[in-house]
Input
Amino acid sequence: MADPAVQSRGITRREFLNYVWGASMALFMAELGGAIYAFSLPRFKEGEFGGKKTIGSLSDKLPAADKPPVAYPDVKVWLANIGPEAAAKGGGKPGLVALYKVCVHLGCLYAWVDSTNRFECPCHGSKYQLDGTYIEGPAPRDLDRFVVKLVDDKGNVVQDAQGQLLQTVSDKSSPDYGAPIPLPANASNLTIVVETGEKLELGKRHFYKGGA
Ligand code: FES
Output
């Protein structure tokens, strides 16, 4: 039997419950839509750690080959240009590399030391060479790297003359996983971009040849 109080306002109990159910469903769908939209947005803004960092033009921002790296503390990055000397010491390839500024032992911030020409961690003494190769200390592996890329004025990753993308290889099965990206001649109009959400762990290579 219909509730007299509800009937007196001109609707039955069934109609009233239908309205309540409909309003609840509409609210649920609105919340679900909002959650899906929020999930689809990038989690990190451009320029902050975890997102994309545009460093600047290659002609302005490229560190000199085999010279001290340049720090970008806001995104926890060291940018280094691995020349023939550092590549020979580390047993890797020359090119541009972006290193994660956090020590792979217990997470301290290591620093570049000019007098020894290497990275040194103040906490427990781990040492790494310019390309992040492990030298000594308790660190379990080489320094982690981020994906770095060279893009054109439209933001597209460019290719070298052999058709190779100028972007750090993030496929673990590739022999070039995490390797420095080659620096083509006459490419000063390109822009350096680091993806700080794409961290690569290289393991411990033991290729370091020693010497300052
Ligand atoms: S945190 Fe760097 S050596 Fe321990």
